[in-house]
């Protein structure tokens, strides 16, 4: 399977980009979606979180209180490390299962921490969705119920813009209007189809 890794900082528009690839019939394996599901109610990972942090980490209905946990790990580095040690192996295992099961001509692995977690080793190409830091902050404040300080902390905890660009085979510039993305995605889709076809072993 020919794997294209898609990454970008918070607020860069990764989901918008991957949705455009999905419209071309391409399978999207999303690390964020997998990360959410491994914390589903009744899961072993959620039970481990409750055991460490108590019921304040949960909503009244027993589901994960993501806002509380996000705040907790940003203020307690040792808790962030513990959570990473718990979740990263589970996420990687599910990622590999879903990549293996993909049937489209190529498959996209979407991960905000593609560079940081060395998931680039699973990819044949790396596509970075690039925006300015000002755009990241503006979009995240509009989308999420978080403070500007928290957005800044998230940005600083991620790879730098330059580190992502250094890892990129291709770059989509997304500081402008959504309509500007369509052409960029269509051109890359054609490139990836050709590369995937070239990469396919002959019978």
Automatic annotation (TrEMBL):
<keyword id="KW-0173">Coenzyme A biosynthesis</keyword>
<dbReference type="GO" id="GO:0015937">
    <property type="term" value="P:coenzyme A biosynthetic process"/>
</dbReference>
<dbReference type="Pfam" id="PF01121">
    <property type="entry name" value="CoaE"/>
</dbReference>
<comment type="function">
    <text>Catalyzes the phosphorylation of the 3'-hydroxyl group of dephosphocoenzyme A to form coenzyme A.</text>
</comment>
<dbReference type="GO" id="GO:0005737">
    <property type="term" value="C:cytoplasm"/>
</dbReference>
<dbReference type="InterPro" id="IPR027417">
    <property type="entry name" value="P-loop_NTPase"/>
</dbReference>
<keyword id="KW-0963">Cytoplasm</keyword>
<feature type="binding site">
    <location>
        <begin position="11"/>
        <end position="16"/>
    </location>
    <ligand>
        <name>ATP</name>
    </ligand>
</feature>
<keyword id="KW-0067">ATP-binding</keyword>
<keyword id="KW-0547">Nucleotide-binding</keyword>
<protein>
    <recommendedName>
        <fullName>Dephospho-CoA kinase</fullName>
        <ecNumber>2.7.1.24</ecNumber>
    </recommendedName>
</protein>
<comment type="pathway">
    <text>Cofactor biosynthesis; coenzyme A biosynthesis; CoA from (R)-pantothenate: step 5/5.</text>
</comment>
<keyword id="KW-0808">Transferase</keyword>
<keyword id="KW-0418">Kinase</keyword>
<dbReference type="GO" id="GO:0005524">
    <property type="term" value="F:ATP binding"/>
</dbReference>
<comment type="similarity">
    <text>Belongs to the CoaE family.</text>
</comment>
<dbReference type="InterPro" id="IPR001977">
    <property type="entry name" value="Depp_CoAkinase"/>
</dbReference>
<dbReference type="GO" id="GO:0004140">
    <property type="term" value="F:dephospho-CoA kinase activity"/>
</dbReference>
